[in-house]
Amino acid sequence: MSGLKNDLLLRALLREPVPRTPVWIMRQAGRYLPEYRAVREKAGDFMSLCRSPELACEVTLQPLRRYRLDAAILFSDILTVPDAMGLGLYFETGEGPRFERPLKTGSDIRKLAVPDVAAKLGYVFDAVRTVRRELDGSVPLIGFAGSPWTVATYMVEGGSSREFKTIKGLADNDPAALSTLLDLIAATTIEYLNAQIDAGAQAIMIFDTWGAALEAENYRRFSLASMQIIVDGLTRERDGRRVPVILFTKGAGALLTDMAGTGCDALGVDWTTDLSTARKYVDDRVALQGNLDPATLLESPDKIRQGVAEVLESYGSGPGHVFNLGHGITPDIDPDNVTILVDAVHELSPAYK
Ligand code: 1CP
Predict the structure, then answer these.
(1) How does pLDDT run across 41-66, given as a tens digit for each residue?
(2) Which of 51, 95, 233, 266 could potentially form a cystine with 287 if both were Cys, beta carbons 3.0 to 4.6 Å apart?
(3) Is residue 151 within 8 Å of residue 211, measured between CB atoms?
(4) Of 58, 61, 78, which is best to mutate to test ligand 1, by the most ligand atoms within 8 angstroms of its C-beta?
């Protein structure tokens, strides 16, 4: 099972030389694909799709049938972890995620415990094994989880938030309760990701979508520190190969310098920081993944090719770049525009190697 036909992603994440830049797309399985919408409808609701290893595998593979991508990412969600902790995740149609039992007080937090990960999240590990079997060594499979801070925002706010008033209130008024919560999520996430690695995940990504909502000092204290705990607890080698770890804080900017010191292998970069600047921030200590503005995919084929060329030029020559968007692809994108992006990376990137 360890012989990969295409290991460009794993090599680039470790800053090893590759003949061209590998490419995958955040949220590559999703609503912009008609075949995803069909399976999603068949599953009924989003969590039923995640809980069915066959259907989760099917939607994981859909983008790989259309595009020359260099990685699969497991179809699941970052909120499976709080669901396993007993908060009751559900999705309202047309709305974001919600919890039946959000954490309202410090005493709600103190009642939580690390769940039985194998029992509560076994469906995720079954999906990983199913995807690995179906991929048959064609490309590596990325496993993932949310950062403790990002996951905690949903647990405390009860769903999506833009202002994070409740959790910021907790940070100010009961920082010990917030730290307890973040430690619990981190401990659960270590077990969760190591079980994904045991089941066959070959690289790991931690999504910290909302870390940059914190001021820098609180970012380091609450978001970065809890990601550090996870990085320290992860299995880093499997089947004789290193399992690279990618951290992604959307909007990190100059904080990329701190992130590069965690011992991770790579950092995701959103489109608000040029890769040339990001490279200076991290001083070539880690690989970089990104960072085309997802909105570029709404433009003409020429503009998309130009956008790809600019991202490649901004990273410049040398190893350690994985092409991606700067955040997830949105549902309004024409799937044919993704072909243009992926083909442009294949065509233009060898010049930088
Ligand atoms: O109706 C639908 O089909 C639901 C849309 C959807 C999808 C396609 C949700 C609900 N989750 C997912 C899959 C998903 N989520 C993946 C799959 C792998 C992939 O193809 O990339 C991944 C990696 C995630 C991660 C995720 N979920 C994040 C972090 C990454 C990011 O994009 O910032 C976050 C914040 C979530 C929460 C979540 N789940 C779903 C939605 C719509 C949201 C975001 C809500 C919000 O904006 O607050």
Answers:
(1) 999 999 999 999 999 999 999 999 99
(2) 266
(3) no
(4) 78
